[in-house]
Records
---
Amino acid sequence: MAIPLRDNMLVVKDLRKSFGGVKAVDGVSFDVPRGTITGLIGPNGAGKSTVVNSLSGFHGVDGGSVMFDGTDITNWPSHKVAQRGLIRTFQLARELRSLTVFENMLLASNDQPGQTSWQALFLRKKIRDSERDLLGKAVDLLKRFNLFHVRDEYAGNLSGGQKKLLDLARALMADPRLMLLDEPMAGVNPTLAGQLQEHIRDLKDEKGITFLLIEHNLRIVESLCNHVVVMAEGTILAEGNMSALRENENVVRAYLGG
Amino acid sequence: MLHYLLTLAIFFAFFAVEAWGLNLQFGLTGILDFTYITFVAIGAYFAGVAAMTPSTNGGMGGSYIFGWQLPFPLSPVIGGIAAAMLGVVVGIIGLRRLRSDYLAIVTVSVGQIVWMVIGNATPLFNGWDGIVGVPQPYNSVMNLSTNNYEWPFLGISVIVAAIIFWLVRSLTESPYGRILRAIREDENVAAALGKNVFRYRMSAFVIGAFIAGISGALQIEYIGAWNPSGWTTLETFIVWAAMLVGGRGNNRGMLLGAFLVPVLFTEATRWITIPAHPLLMEAIRGMAIGLLMVLAVRFRPQGVIPERKRVFPLTTIPGLKEDVANGHTAQG
Amino acid sequence: MTLSLIWMGIGFGLITASVLALGAVGLTLQFGVTNFVNFAYGEFLTIGAYLAFVFNKGLNMNIWLSMLIAGVLTAVVAYLFNVWVIQPFIKRKSQMIILLVVTIGMDLFLMNFVQAIFGPEFKQYQDPAGSILHIGPFLFTLQQIIIILIAAAAMVSLHVLLKYTKLGKAMRALSDNAELALISGIPTMRVTNYAWLLSGFLGGLAGVVLAINVNNFTPALGSEFLFVIFAAVIMGGIGRPYGAMLGALVIGLAMEVSATFMDSAYKTVVAFGILVIMLLFRPQGILPSRGRV
């Protein structure tokens, strides 16, 4: 039923995860084609969050496999998944409150000296140099997300919308190849939601970043995603583009209709 | 009077070092070490027996392990390493879980067990009687009386404290320290950005334990003796109160906290005695320290000297001219 | 000879398990509802023990009656502890690590408060241990049998409470999923208050029977016993009352039976060893997982 695709950024095969006998995810398989914004939709309790947490290494899986850009990352711990270039965000903005906006940005970069205690003690010159370069990169991103003027503010003091934007900007500092966005538009006002969509589209086009977008709002999914995966009750109900899915009787019954 | 002030200054150095280690664990990383004094004690014991002459087993000095007669800079290092090794063990048991209560539970338990074992297992460190006669650094060469020895020892303490300050400052003001603070705020975000939370917690905990051990080593080399009655729960929380009052996360604040709580408060209350109940003051002091901890986090959670805000001057950023920056500031 | 020693160990183990069960269930109930460990819990035991001492020694009351009154009063202490000390931090949405710092600070405060009033000397109840009874292979004093019966009665009542009353069901719901409980209209605040009352009551009782069992006690009574309670709680899976009962039984027996083989000063090391093994290999406890991460 899926359109044959040549190049997949993410290949999920037969993923299984249960909690205390309850099967939250029961044999889920889907692909995220490279360079696309793929949507993952489904009613509450469909197992979307479990999929996100499994892919990003926040919990192990009971069965199945996850291939990320040709590497088997099944059951990898979250930090290793992230270091590979698969960066996730959380439903609610998770700013690091007592770090400034700049510090939030610098933190996200994984290729800087001084991240271990020994380097922190003995590579101080090198740290200064690399920090300068990273600041330059952070400045570009902050300008892009209109956060430059609050660069030295504590992240905890930002407005709700700014925190959302910082989440996205910070994730980009880690040079992701695939971004896993967990309901980024949830609880966000329409103006900001529009901005976020713009950003996501631009990032895909300019930087070639692939997105897996978990989203409730079908209109947003329809306008952003060329490929959509529908989940219900821990399994995949259908896969395809949005207009095809609207024709699909199962999907309509389980989700779109209700 | 001078003798007294010198002693106070030396103890101030001990407590400052202790506070820096605890600050690295809790202030920076958010690790709950409720038995910090155990690491101080392990450092003291191991440094002590490393510096002492071999035990005569049952003779005047009692029985203890080692007796290597190591000279000064080596014996404290042994103490620091021993404390760090205990830190590794505790960390392996308690730090692998993301919930912070587990480590706290492990530290509370380890504290009691280590105390009980050291008290009962006499061959280790002479049990409840403790070890005595730890040589003062270089005093065999200088041959000074106790009073005259205070100047050189103050010098040693200041040098050690300066080294430890350099250590914690370098760690704090580096990408490493930034990651520790991120873990303190939200370990899941840190993990999602590629940081190995367990490894960072472990390293901060172990370095903190090492620093505690160094402080303990300094203490035993000054006092010359150590036994289980010298390290009780209260000692741990005096350091906690110092850290919370001084300003968790701020290494300069630790100097202030170490001065206000263990030095000023403890010394001031030392002179108050209640004749009919000689031990009452001890209990009141314990109550005050406990209350101080609660009140500090309630009314002054950032401490007297809050954590410093890190500001990055734009002039250091290549390719960004100040006018461009200002233009954008105005726009935003 | 050896066999009778082991039987003796098992007998002591049952008594320790009874003391431990009261203490462990009190701690784990409150954890289940509030989702943080109360490091001042040991002082509930100490306060209970000293309150009973006041009624027993000061007012010449029967020890079991003193115990009951002490339990009720400790429940009030726990309730006020929650309202006055904990809630201000909950309202300000303090991080959990701050809450834990508060409880350990209060532990220090309360222990020294008891010491300031009663002094650091050993205290003892006035109560005859009663005649020695043979029950099967065991030798118990009347007092020890009453301790076991009290614990058993408490556990059965607790089972009834959790299983059949509205309050008990609300507690379990809150402990399983706090958010869901809140949405489904469970009065979270009231249930939390009851959890603290119950925690204080059980902690107070545990303190008194512990004090009877160890014969003489100091203000360090509770805080020294706390980590044995932790071992039982972790073994049963933190926040799970039935697990805590099972954990208490295992730890109590392991400690006392091992004490027949080796220096009894080290029996707490056995409890610690079990705690370590649990944390390393099965931190969720010995009971099968109920589906929460």
Note: Chain A touches chain C at residues 19-22, 59 (CB under 8 Å).
---
Amino acid sequence: MNLRKYLKVYKKFLHTSLASELEYKTNILVDLITAILSLIGSIFLLSIFFQNNGYIGGWTFEQALIIQGIYTILNGITNTWFNPNLTEIVKHIREGTLDFVLIKPIDSQFFISLKKINPSGFLEIILGFFLLFFCIRINQINLNLSFLTQSLITISCSICILYSLWFFISTTTIWFVKTWNAIEVLRSFLYIGRFPLNSFSFSLRIFFSIFIPIAFITTIPSEVFLGLSQLWKILLEVIVTSVFLITSRKFWLFALKSYSSASS
Amino acid sequence: MVQNIIDVRNLSKSFDISSKEPGLKGTIKHFFRRQTKSLKVIKDISFEIKEGEIVGFLGANGAGKTTILKMLCGLIYPSEGSIVVAGYLPFRRKENFLKNITLIMGQKQQLIWDLPPIESFFLNASIYDLDKFEAKKRIKKLSEMLEIDEEVFIPVRKLSLGQRMKSELLAALIHEPNILFLDEPTLGLDINAQRNLRKFLQKYNKETNATICLTSHYMKDITSLCKRVICVHQGAISYDGKLDLLLKKLSPVKEILIVCRSEDDAIKLENFGFPVKNKIKNEITIKIENNYITSSLKTILNNFDIVDLYINEPPIDEIIGKVLNNKEYDI
Amino acid sequence: MISNLINRKIFTLLKVQYSNMLEYRVEIALWAISGIIPFFMLNIWTNNNLNESINISDVMLSRYFLCAFFVRQFSVVWVVFSFEEDSLMGKVSPYLIQPLNPFLRYFAQHLAEQITRFPFALIIAFFFFIFNTESIWIPNLGLLLLSIVSTFLSFLIQFLIQSIVACLCFWTEKASSIERLLFIPTLFLSGLLAPVVSFPAYVKSWIYLTPFPYLIDFPANLLSGNETNISGGLSMQILWIFILFPLFMKIWSEGTKKYTAMGS
């Protein structure tokens, strides 16, 4: 019964935010062009790296495109869900309308992380999938059941890790109202995710595995595509994901406690 | 018997305020050793509110009205004391408690800016577990009471402030709460919109027997809606009781403007023994205590040649202003 | 006399904005950090020996990317976002009745922000040199001055482009999506991620006709001592300013005309 209510509410969220966005139609069109150009630009950059080299960090151009595809999907998800909702959270806290959310009989994390949606991110997700299918063709990957489940698990895990990171930073808004620039830092670090992690120097690789789990976000899923991944890596990814999700939830509840015992 | 729907006992609230010296040095010092001091904003207050009552909270800016209201709806955690609202502890924010209350803040809005209000109504309906049929019924009923119709199909950003407030109310009342918390609901509205809002609240209270707690800076809101007021002064309750009694207690004197036939009469009256406020030619203003009004007027009318006479009630804003600035008014 | 008046106005504006910006130093520091993408790119280039094919030594390339970082730091523009927010909050009308073009106000804001940002950029450069001691160099004074001038010209070009986009706010509510669209070619073609020298020939044939390589590649080459056509670059920068400035004035006057006609 509860699940049905949440589904129903989510349907309303979808309806209202799509309707809001459609009020600005030219905006959507421009965003769609931006998404296409952005993908072209990324492939262009990759092609510059490969124009005189066959391998980068042990990856061929065709293999590196897989990472690009996964990155594009994840970026599309970020633009569709995480980004507009973060903007909304900042607004809620700056204008004090978080109170309205908190007195509603619904989970506040659910409400604030799913209320908004930006339809122009969909195109990026679709483009990312197209690129992935293209990569499956050119890399002659066998589409069998174990590959599909593995890739599904790892990609969902990356989405969850990414969500946790974003939600974590959004939560800090409760103490520091201006977190936009922290998001920019995260964004620029995540930018790395569109290249094979092996192409960076050892120290940078360590940094990006520990502080920003890039390895878990794009590298492991793309290894699944190449048939390189071992079972323990996937298990580790699942564990890391649950740690991230639980921590972000706990952190939100903690933040709410301090919100309700401070501020006026 | 009428039940106490809100019961507050010895409630206190302290906020930790961190103080920081200016400049970079202060920031660094602040980062390592935070100096916080506890500021008690609500000091040991107790009151109860019966079902169906309309209670006005009065107080200067920063007196603690909003903090009390937020504690009552569970947004702020009390430091000490107990609050029971409709049988629940508010800060636990249990689903059934939340379905029972609503909060309306005059300066903040929850409607979706780019869409017609009707979309926000249906969104709220789904959050409060109402089916479509029920939601439609309630929207129809409330929009009749609020006297809005086609406005609900116009995007919020194109509505006037008054229309927006009505829609806010509808969105906040769609789940038919028993307890309404209103924080400055008439802020920024024009006089007609204010009057309509008050009329609606009165009607809503009569029809549903809902309990209403409101704060406002417009005295008219308080005088026309609330029989009972709670005055908050620096976090403590300075008066809790009937509004009439407060007014009587605070303004024991009425001013009477007397227009005499001639200036001589006025001079005679001036020396008659009443406390005189001022005198301009043949017009004289005197102050008489409430209890002696009739007898004094008789004396004056018998002894002087009076052309005209006005009894001035002291303006209520002035009286309330006194409450806001002073501490104790026990009755 | 008139120029004297303008100078005094700008000076006062600068002073006010600088103290305003000091309040935001944490944000500005974070923002400076978010600009370190060029260093990640450098890491890919040198770690995979990609630079051998374009005949730039490791040291010169690392200097190039450091300079690209610096040029980017001092040519970041966000007029569109400020103007959009101001127009949504209804601040434009009071600006219009003041005897000062509001864009002069934004201009002062940007300069003040750059001054605040300077120490943070220096700190980041300092760390860069700790890790890359061999790339320390002292640019010759003439080139340094020239590169400061060209960085400023690059800032001016971007400021003018964004101001033109910002003026579109008079016609559509959200001009920032157009800015995001324009940012994509700026990102990929300006030389922030890869020096323009490394671009394939089919791009190099037309790119020097666009303003993009003069935004980062040209000033960064100048500052780092890499080979570049100094007089050609500077004259192209000035040419673009001469094209953009009248365009901006035109669209500004059209926009204000429309704005006052609407009477909102």
Note: The mean pLDDT of chain A is 89.
